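User: Can you write out an input/output pair for a complex, sequences first and structure second?

Assistant: Here is one pair. Inputs:
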Amino acid sequence: MSAMPSQTSAAGFRAQISGASLWDLVQMECMSRSRQVFRVGGEGGVGYLYFAEGRVVHAVTSRLSGEIAALEILGWTNGSFQPCERAWPAAFTIESSCEALILRLAKRRDEAASNLVAFPGRPASVDEEQFEEIEIEEIHEEGEMRAPNNTDHPPSSTAAAVARSDISAEFPVTMRLAPGGGVLTSKGADDEMAGVVAYAHRLGQLTGELLGLEPFVAMECTFADGRLLLFEEENGETVALRSRTESNLQPLRDKLGL
Amino acid sequence: MATGTNGLPAGLASAVASALATARAQMHASLVTLKDVYGITGSFVYARSGHLVARELPPMFDDIALSEAGSRLARLHETFSSVGDKLEIAVLRFREHKVYVKSLPAGALCIISSGSVNMPALRMAANLVGRRIAPVLDHVADDAKLVETPPTAAAATVTSATSADAASPAGPRPPAQAPPGMRRFRGRPVG
């Protein structure tokens, strides 16, 4: 990770540091209590970290917003960062202190290392009480942000974001399958469920093709003792989430167009 | 003794055909009411085996496709059943449409709608229609002959029932028009 020269006209030194980490940036900005937006380019794409009041107050990537986005960005290990001018959100989306953020990321890394990742993009360390539904925002080149979701419009473009933004402890069972059917990640699921999910997905696709309604986007199945949400991401991966009967799925339904 | 189209006594075959037509007309009348909900394109009913039993959809949805789709949706039920989950409702979202599937004891009610349909209204309408058609579908499903009518024959019957000549609902398609080897009665090829 290297720091690139600032593109802003703010007074002060311009720095170009090789070997700096994002944590150096976070600690420096938190200590200085500056109000600044940083553009971070890493292996996961481009993201923005908003610093104010001595902490990270907002973060956004092309798919995520809020603390989940911050954790994703801070998980990148290679790339560059630089200050930039960018519109600020109407309200801060991250309440955690800098230290709490560091602890969550560390825990997330530990769990990833032990192959117990709860779900891609979902920090396993985010407690149920702490988890808040994240407003999905699209990043526009001009720097303004808006919520893209509208159930009147095709929902497929939001599915990828949903996968990483609304996954909470509401879902005791989660699974992500590769287009070829391989299990990419799984929590609380067995091999049998992989088969069920893969086949149910295929049957949904076929139903759409036969009725001339394709492409398939998502499916919600209601059982006596729970529900299963299944949706397809733009990269072809299939995501399945099993919830309890009493769980409130409406926000997720809205985003998936269900 | 004179025999009917499926090797049954002529009187029995006629009674069965009449019962089938009546059952389908009853289900069709219920399906029509679903269109009170803005955004609902139409609906169809399939038996547990996946066979199309009744329909109320624009002609662009042909019966063979509906029967094939019903077969896939029936397999969806079976898929979940195989792991101990009894599917009650399934909502499938496609780019611009939704398919709402409500399980019934002897099959399922399947509703095709636009993506922006009022879901609470759709759910309520589906519940009411489901309650009305469930006993009829049970009756139809009890008779293997009715359920196992091939899709193409079902298409002819249903199309006739929804035509302008609804006052005289048609019976099963005459055997001369049915594909060879397709007719069955209680699991046996007949006719």
